[in-house]
Amino acid sequence: MTERIAPPLLVIVPTFNERENLPTLARGLMAHPNVSMMVVDDRSPDGTGELADAIARQHPGRIEVMHRSARPGLGRSYIDGIKKGLQQRFDVICQMDADLSHDPQHLPALVNAIRNADIVIGSRYVEGGDIVNWPRRRRLLSRFANYYIRTVTRLNVRDCTSGYRCWRRDALARLALDGFISDGFSFLVEMLYVAARQGCRIAEVPITFVERRQGESKLSRAVLAESAITPWRLIATKGARQRQGSDPGQTPRRREGV
To answer: What's the predicted TM-score (pTM) here?
Structure first.
């Protein structure tokens, strides 16, 4: 794959107990030119935050660490990280999991595709995408979840739940993040839904998703329950806003070069 990462790019990586995986991920990202990394640590008891500080000292100006002490959760971590990222010089801001399920080698393909899109998703469910080390039950659950989300929200996306994404700066800046209702993994669905409502162009490129090799999965019954409820909450919120005549999903689009 040809290396073509050109725009100043920030990868935001939320962490909670990812001490074993973080060094490998950081090496993979730092191998790409013009890529910076923001670790947003949610008070990890295993020392992930302290390790992130040590890694950042090895890459001054390219890795920064945010130590959160406010309300925990993936969604709140992303909101804090995105807000800080938007205050800086980056043209493209990306999201990536810390557990090595998202390979940094796919990053150039996502960034190259953003030339013709506002959001690019690293997708398991387009041609060329794959999943490694998932049992059949987990595969079926994921496919059903995406079918369910598409059916309820009418999103025209194959992999609505992928956390590997790159955004144009202006697309992220238009999201009213403080008004989001989701905290966990369903935050990713809410981001996509709101962006689609605003008319953002969404593209998908194939990735190979690899189940985490170290640490424990964050998937729980509470996460699954929130994921089942969120699409309906989004539809209900949209309807209420339309009746009030103030649907932020209809914000006019702007364009910035990347």
So the answer is: 0.87
